[in-house]
Amino acid sequence: MAAGNTSSVTEFILAGLTDKPGLQLPLFFLFLGFYVVTVVGNLGLITLIGLNSHLHTPMYLFLFNLSFIDFSYTSAIIPKMLMSFVSKKNIISYTGCMTQLFFFCFFVISEAFILSAMAYDRYVAICKPLLYTVTMSPQVCLFLLLGVYGMGTWGALAQTGNILFLTFCADNLVNHYMCDILPLLELSCNSSYMNLLVVFIGAVITIGVPIVTIFLSYGFILSSIFHISSTEGRSKAFSTCSSHILAVSFFFGSGTFAYLKPPSVIPLDQGKVCTLFYTIVVPMLNPLIYSLRNKDVKLAMKKTLGRITFS
Q1: At what angle do helices 231-259 and 268-276 cross, to 10 degrees?
Q2: Order of strands, edge to edge, in the sheet holding 11-14?
Q3: Alpha-carbon separation of residue 112 from 18, 83, 159, 213 (angstroms)
Q4: pLDDT tops 50 at residue 27
């Protein structure tokens, strides 16, 4: 790269999580372990849902897609991140960086909207149980999934396009373990208020709209639960929602902290920790949350293991 030529950036160097040599190898094995658990957990959940017909319902269709999304965007991030722990310079090409950014945005935004679709599904199941099969018909589920991935595509194109219009000068060291929006904006020599505004509006839409949908759904759900006379009925209704509430809290809590506050409020090093949580920790926890707290998934696991044992 020729210094001073603002149009000649062909690659970036990812700084990674830390520059302390003594932490590189322990962190490599730690995050490799996280990745293995994430892959096994999410692919295992996808396999269980696919093989067991009693899980072929709207709720598990959305859970199937949640696991697919979690597996996909961790696979777009962690393998490259692991390279930073074992190489002196973790270099990524300009094209590779923009590609990683696009898929990161696509899957993260899709996750936000799949979580809101799951909340709507629970609302219909608890508040309108007699109309559930009609309201959550295959056509409606398909429409919701098209909306989920459509919003993911729109958001990814908007945010990636916003970065593509920037000019990068002599410095090509990205202060992150991946190509994320805010570190790239900081690195650019011509980013402006309008670029930050695009990021903020995108975050408001992709975080705000799902959160409003989820809060409304659970507001109606709580109102309906409090009208259930039996303690057993209330307990069952709460148990069907508890896993989803945990997943939503982890994902949106860290995402809101990372993107809905200006960079001047949160230093980039703290932003790394927030991003780390919802890009690596949450996808690893989701299969555990939905399997350990779900009787249907446990039953499917026993049946599948039984078929493998006796085959």
Answers
A1: 150
A2: 90-93, 11-14, 173-174
A3: 29, 28, 16, 11
A4: yes
